[in-house]
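Researcher: Here's a chain I'd like modeled. Treat it as a single chain, no partners, no ligands.
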Amino acid sequence: MRGAIANILSSESEGLPTVLLESVALGVPCISSKCKNGPREILLNGRGGLLFETGDANALAKNMKFVFEHPAKAKQMSDIATNGLKRFDSTAIAKQINDLIHSLVVSGY
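Model: Modeled as a single isolated chain. Structure tokens:
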């Protein structure tokens, strides 16, 4: 996958689109349908990858052409998505949970 020009997720539905997370972690540009449960969040609403309406083959083809013709722009998007994965880091999540518990204790909730 590391050497791919792009990763395409064309699903109508996903539980957790692990293939997007793997691609983003490897720095591979992603093109994904706007299916439920993940692609928009993982690809930061299109800032970190290209999104298209589920079932829209013309939009998919247009996005594929964009990635092929503009590899530097696709790489920029991929870098944004990769940096965005930091928000899922276990240390960051543990800190958020700790901060929440602390705020609840301090407020007397």
